[in-house]
Structures are given as structure tokens and as C-alpha cells.
Amino acid sequence: MKVILQRVTEAKVVVAGEVIGAIKKGVLVFVAVEKGDGETQAAAMVRKVQAFRLFPSGEKKNMDLSTADVGGEFLVVSQFTLAADCNDGNRPSFDPAAPPDVAEKLYEYFVAQLSQGPCRVATGKFRAMMEVSLVNDGPVTFILESK
Asked: Which H helix or E strand runs over 123?
């Protein structure tokens, strides 16, 4: 499982001209499910995302606070392209990505587990063509991998 975290002041997802998910201060979370991933990897990644400290505290601007610590929100978007193998040639191979039916179940599990935490969770729409817009705060972006 691969996850991209982007600290944002706002973010939203639009599908077919309609806003389906939006947050203010918080974290935009892009999620890719890979072959071999299961609930164990998803649950561990949720714990990591919830506890990850990417917000500043004090004058030093150290990243000491989690999303919950700052009253932030999560916007979770499925993005299978993160699982791409781009090492050979000029065309990405999506062979490492989990099949859509498996990926959708784990994506939904990830969202459900994250929603049990203290932060509000908004989402995109699995397998939809989405327009994602954000204001990256910092910019601050981190890549997390379960393997």
C-alpha cells in the first residue's frame, strides 16, 4: 500500500461537475492498493496516517502535531497510479496494482477505519474520473509505504 499525504489549507474532489468531498485545514490522502495488500496493511497505514505529525507547533515550526491535534480533516482519494512501475521504458506498468474489486474493498476498509478516529473524513469516488484541487500548505508532502 502506498499513501501520499499532503498538508492542505483546503482541498476538494469534483466528479461530473459536482463537489463530492471537501475539507478545510487537514490532509489530502492519496491511497494506492497493491497486490498482496490486505486489512493488516490497511489498518497499519491508518494508524500511521492518524498519528503522523505534519503540522507545526510553536515558533520553531517543528512538525510536532497530528491532524487530530490541530482539529484537521482528511480527504481520502483512491489513486491506483501510485502503484505504477515506471522503471522500464516510458510507459507505466500497472501490474503492481491490486485488481479493482480487491482495491475497492481495501480502500473502503481504509476509509472506514480512518473514520473511526477523531477527525472528519471526506472522500473521492472509487473508479471515477475526478478533479482534485488543493492548496498545499508549505508545501508539505510525504510518501508512506507499507512494504
From this structure: strand 121-123
Classified as helix, coil or strand, 73 is strand
Active-site choice (9, 40, 81, 141): 81
pLDDT tens sequence across 91-145: 999 999 999 999 999 999 999 999 999 999 999 999 999 999 999 999 999 999 9
Catalytic residue among 67, 79, 113, 123: 79
Burial 115-141 (b: 16+ CB within 10 A, else e): eebebebbbbebeeebebebeebeeee
**Is 80 noted as a catalytic residue in this protein?**
yes
State how far the Cα of 82 lies from the Cα of 6, in Å rounded to an integer: 14
* Every domain of the chain and the residues it spans: 2-145
The confidence band for 40, taking pLDDT boundaries of 50, 70 and 90, is very high
Number of CB atoms found within 10 A of residue 37's CB: 22
2-145 maps to CATH 3.60.150.10: no
- To the query of whether residue 81 is one of the catalytic residues in this protein, the response is yes
Cis peptide upstream of residue 118 (ω within 30 degrees of 0):
no
Contacts of 16 (CB under 8 A, 6+ apart): none
